[in-house]
Amino acid sequence: MSASRTERLLNLLIALLNTEYGLRRRELREKVYHDTTSSDVAFGRMFERDKGELRQFGFEVETLTDRGWGSDDPATTRYRIGKESNRLPDVSLTPEECTVLILAAQLWEHAALGSAALDAVRKLQAAGGLLYAELPAGVQPRIRPAGQAFEDLVAAMHAQHPVGFRYLAGSTGKEEERLVEPWGIGSRFGQWYLVGHDRTRGDKRFFRLSRLASAVTVLEKEAFTPPSGFNVRAELAGLAELPVRTAVVDVQHGRLLGLRKRAVAGSSDTPSAVAGAQQPGARDRLMVPFRDAETLGEELASYGPRVKVVSPPELVTAVRRRLSAAADFAAAPVPPVIFPAAGAGNAKHRRKRTSEDQLKRMLQLVPFLVHNQGLHISEVAARFGITRKELEEDLRILICSGLPEGYPDDLLDIQWDDDHVFITQDLDLNRPVRFTVEEACALLTGLETLNGLPELAEGSALESVTVKLMAAAGEEGLKAASLSGPEVGPDNAATLDTAREAIRTGAQLRLRYFSPQNDSVSERDVDPLRLYSLDNTWYLEAYCHSARGLRNFRLDRIEELHPNGSPVSATAKPAGSFPVKLFTPNDDDTVVVVELTRRGVGLADDYYAERTAPLPDGGLLAEIRFGSPDWLPMFEAQHGGTARILQPEALADSARDWVDAARAQYED
Fold first, then answer.
1. Which of 112, 226, 520, 603 is the most buried (most CB within 10 A)?
2. Nearest to 479 by CA among 91, 34, 116
3. For residue 395, which phi and psi values (nearest 5 degrees)?
4. How many distinct helices (H) and strands (E) make up the chain?
5. DSSP state at residue 73
6. What does pLDDT average to over the chain?
7. What is the β-pairing status of strands 307-311 and 375-376?
8. Residues 6+ apart with CB under 8 A from 333
């Protein structure tokens, strides 16, 4: 991070905001840049780069020329930033609208859009338009983006850069190199799609992100212009759902109850030595309906040697490809397992901070402090998700910034001598800047996604807050049509209603639950605490009296659910985190070191890695807690070459043997 560059950009911004007539390049070079560049050409390049940076933060630099002079004469050209045109308009929200807006912002848990949504919420808080709102216990939906590819594609789409990747073509089953202009990303039929202009084919194409066979490469030196009025939801609405087909699979007798529940007529539950099965022991032949070979292939690959695919051929290929990739990755040389020392600041996986991040934070920090005078410095740091040391570095840069060659009264004045932060001079930075395209997309796409929840869609708050934010976002709000979220409405509404009513009344529940990890069905008494979702998969967080601890139950795996006549116990309390985590740490968890490729680094967030360390090839080492070590071989097989277990070595060997045994079934 370059503190000098951050300070230069901040001083340039203050100078251009506080001039009515405008400043010439010569004045800016002398007063802001202090004539540090070696030539006029070098200064011109630096100034153009800085103007581009300010534009990304939402500040348009106006160009003015004196009458009678040519507009191309830099000596007579003046620059300024209009104070009002770059500010976020006042947004007044009711408590009901605030509740809906916070739910929309918290949809994006791990993705970069999660940071953008948080930035947008901070701007509304700084403007005084966002009130405190208590979130409903039964409605906490979230969106699970499609890994690192989603992150890279969204960034390229907003910056209007083409991208390159290898793609598994559905028509040929072969991997092909594609060069694409990303116009929009959306979810349809439970899958994420990229819609854009395929330069390789010379036409518009749809790409399913689950079929990307490589990391995404962004061509930052190239640009494109998306079609006017593009709406990704409308484009995806024209996609036809894949037809239902039947897979023939041989399953170890008595195993994989979840797969057996989906089997249709023609399946055999009678144990027999199925012809062609190379694993010892009896097997059953099942007929399983499916629509997409890649989706079912990922699931079947995780079952390892417990299942062998007989047909169709493309499903066999999908499973073999994942198992082969997992086996090859497991056999690759192991990198040194070294994590940063405690307190080194890199314990958690996060994108490297840049001077742009720091300046964006400062532009949020000043109006926040103006509207929240006297907060403790630790609370301010917590609100912005940074350490106290990072916050103090920000404050030191701010108090050294101000008008060019100004007096002490012309500098930002911030004090925190007694650990309580006060600001008395803000130099017209007391109002937040308008939404960026990422911030507008995060909030407006989140609000659109909430339409799938009947209890929100039926009220007026969702519609009214959407109208207000569209007006506040302006042109950037129109670009939100390039992103569309998944459906979050539950398929099993009756189970959801029963659980929600039990939470409201404090009633204990008896449930019959299928656990795929244990491959068994059990009955439990639970104290229901919270309901939440990932896409349209809903979970019940509850205190399980059998396990004597907090557990998360998928609603689609609950076979029966009803009150048992008892009230919830006094010891039942929800986990302190929001959003709710799918995994609750326990003392008997197994701590595992996992290596993730560049395509799989998003798994570190999905599985709440406790420590991470970057690798030279763009991959990541992650230390993750798992409640059931028996599930780890399935984890490695499922992710097909993007994740492997390194430590403990016994678990790594077990996973490798599992994958090898599964792959051996398909060898001629």
1. 603
2. 116
3. -65, -35
4. 21, 25
5. -
6. 83
7. unpaired
8. none
405: exposed, middle or buried (C-beta count within 10 Å: 0-12, 13-18, 19+)?
exposed
- For the CA atoms of 111, 193, 517, 283, the dihedral, rounded to the nearest 10 degrees, stands at -160
Residue whose structure tokens are 């799609």:
193
Q: What are the residues whose beta carbons fall under 8 Å from the beta carbon of 239, sequence distance 6 or more?
A: 188, 189, 193, 206
Contact status, residue 484 vs residue 232, Cβ threshold 8 Å: yes
Close Cβ partners of 360 (under 8 Å, ≥ 6 residues apart): 57, 119
The answer to whether residues 162 and 183 touch, using CB atoms and an 8 Å cutoff, is: no
Token digits of residue 518: 């244990």
Q: What number of residues does the chain have?
A: 668
Round to whole Å and give the CA distance between 270 and 284: 6
Q: Is the pLDDT of residue 119 over 90?
A: no
> Locate tokens 């001598």: which residue?
417
* Token duo for residue 599: 């395509």
Looking up tokens 């073509």 gives 169
C-beta separation of 612 from 622 below 8 A: yes
Other Cβ atoms within 10 Å of 85 Cβ, number: 12
- Crossing angle of helices 437-449 and 112-126, in 10° steps, is 100
Identify the pLDDT of residue 459.
Answer: 66
CA–CA separation, 220 vs 198, rounded Å?
Answer: 17
Q: What is the pLDDT of residues 66-94, one digit of tens each?
A: 665 554 556 678 888 877 777 888 888 88
Residue type, 266: G
Within 8 A by CB and 6+ apart from 241, the residues are: 189, 291
Separation between Cα atoms, residue 468 and residue 461, nearest integer Å? 11
The torsion of the CA quartet 567, 571, 576, 581, rounded to 10 degrees, works out to -70
The C-alpha atoms of residue 136 and residue 89 are separated, in whole angstroms, by: 28
Beta bridge partners of 445: none
At residue 650, the pLDDT reads: 93
Measured distance CA(306)–CA(661) in Å, rounded: 10
* In the block, residue with structure tokens 């006297």: 374
